[in-house]
């Protein structure tokens, strides 16, 4: 959602996290700043006068604003895995919590958000203090933390989940997320692209942008948890994000997006329940300072939107200066090219107030202005005409501002939020009239034509941004050719299918040995190849292979990477061992199990394979409803006499839970059940593309050479099955 600005607003996207911030003290489980008085008379005066709250509800509204915000979780990942996590939550944790009493008080079990599809989002009022008082709740908390770390659950405020849902994403959509960090909504967009797990490369993609370079890496971290080849993170000022080109049928065309998420920086007064410091810092000046930036970002968003495409504009502010005023100005400038969409039926169960059509401005000194004509000249730099409602009643009525949606905290125990859905019916007027971009054309343009003036302003900003781009390049993205010598041994060793898209494979270095190989979708490859000088790419691609220095003696110098296994799965036809639920337990709880520890079928398959990297594949058994009903793919290594899984720690714990193994720590920090410490410590180290070329990879060469067959003991633990 929109994030609160901290003196970085003019850069287009700088904000401190708003309702998705990372600070534990700001969010969830009933935490907050106890020493801040939750009073602001100017805030109350302002919103009482604007009447955004229904008559008779203002006290209830203010009481809700003073209450801590419930913690909200969203089940992430792709559909079949998400169903398994939901099943675990409901059957293992929520049922037991329903009958739990602590200090004579019955614990309220988490409740599903009524408007979120398929029970994939839940909220709870349980505090950290309560969680520490019960071993059962402590296990629940550890489950949430562990699953969050590996990306299967996201701590995300409820209202933040709304914009991606209203975009109505389909797998073929090309999506721009303009102000994306920290990335919770970006993750939602990626999940929607991958609604069909059997399709490793959807036609669509997500380009996630943020102006703050450091926050871009936070965004990378969020996106990487989903292991998608269809996400690219870029670093630009959202108000002048470059227009990209793609090649189609031998010619280059402008890339227009099917969906744009315009989640702009904002004053964040809707986040007072979790960002408690807003109470003492709130003033009407915040909105006045941000309005221009928000409008510029929104203009740039609709410029890049395809005709018939959909853009969602959102903020976590309740202020109409940041909300309806931006939308009204955008609609007026579009001259009919944009239309507000009626999204009232898109999220059944969501309570909201319709957008307002009349509002006033107030300065921090308490001075009110109802119309631009009332504003004194000395305030014209701070207060602009676009901040007021249209004065023409017919024009105002035709905008249908009531189709905007304002979520109030007391209606469904959430934060405050604003969202509007726009559809583009035709090119923007300044794009229709715009001449070719040359220095002369910029000079001679008639600034009195408002639309053209705005368009050329944006173009000037683009030229400036492009010039600033040079000198800040990340490591290169180098695509391999089909005849690259790296492919034949890989193709032979894994018996890759003939339709394996070699051209989608890239590395991050021009020189020396290729250490890691990544894959992107065909469409993102098109974007990368045609825009290397236009955009600053921070990260893209999912790692599929990593070099094993001693692997050549086994026939292939590259071992499989766990994060890319689901992308490669459809193409690998060799080096695969089909395993059972019991095999999964053995592989993830024993450090170096001998081949004989596998079930009879898996043991027989393993004996036929030479040493080297392997895929350990579990397929659901429809006849056994108690077993996981989603596929599981694990990377492993077949040694001389033993076998092991190379799976990162958090994924290991996730898969163990899926097969009924309980993994948690007691209050002394000792593990009960699950993998040994050494097993977890040897899990594959995942690195971020762009950094690995400069650091030495922690190779597991000794293990990979012999599968740790030299180990004289089989360090297994008892499996604690539920």
From TrEMBL:
**Where are the compositionally biased (Acidic residues) regions?**
685-702
Task: Tell me the enzyme class.
Answer: transferase
Q: Which InterPro entries match?
A: MeTrfase_RsmB-F_NOP2_cat, MeTrfase_RsmB-F_NOP2_dom, Pre-PUA_NSUN2, PUA_NSUN2, RCMT, RCMT_NCL1, SAM-dependent_MTases_sf
Which terms are listed as keywords in the entry?
Methyltransferase, Nucleus, RNA-binding, S-adenosyl-L-methionine, Transferase, tRNA processing, tRNA-binding
Q: Which residues bind S-adenosyl-L-methionine?
A: 179-185, 210, 237, 263
The SAM-dependent MTase RsmB/NOP-type domain, residue ranges: 61-425
User: What family name appears in the similarity comment?
Assistant: Belongs to the class I-like SAM-binding methyltransferase superfamily. RsmB/NOP family.
Put simply, this protein is called tRNA (cytosine(34)-C(5))-methyltransferase
Organism for this UniProt entry: Astyanax mexicanus (Blind cave fish)
